[in-house]
Amino acid sequence: MFSASFHAENTLFFLRAKYFSGAVKKDVDSGTRSTVYNSLVIENGSSRTILRSAAFARLAGVSTDTLRHYERKKLLKPQRSRNGYREYTTEMLDRVRLIRRAISVGFTIDELSAILKARDKGDAPCHQVHTMAQAKLAEVETQLRELTTVRDDLRSVISDWDTRITNLDNNQRAGLLEALANTDAVALRNHSPISKPSRNQRIRSKYK
Description:
Multidrug-efflux Transporter Regulator, Chain: A, Domain 2, four-stranded antiparallel beta sheet, two-stranded antiparallel sheet, 6 strands, 9% strand
């Protein structure tokens, strides 16, 4: 199994190859003391690799807006160059991957901010994270049960409508919605989750 240092060395090699081959676009600062700034900076030929926002975002698979959002939420703490550029190290790639994976299983940005803040201080919030994950799983399982009920109810409704439409003459109303109103509304009794906003919709509305 390859070690983390092996992967880091490979990433560093790739980035240096791009730098020296001219694959990284260069922007020239105007003025009498013109300086060339690259999206990739290698400090004094050392193994410490620094990335500008655009290059880091490409490697991490996110947008620069996402990186700035993570920074506002204290999930990332990029350094600033003398010229005000955000600077990221390759080690921060693991942090971004961690954030994206945690979000994909239900953790929110604010929850991750609190968790990572505690971890960065040297605490070990493992039990808290485990408890939170269990609660999220329970919520998902409840939603699945509710959706299964809605699915079964909808199948029954459509089966009834199939029969009504099959026996329908041209230009004759089937009264589908009227028939629906007279049926035993299982989904209505259980407050159909279809009408509820999804987790992603709730998160988006929260940060509007």
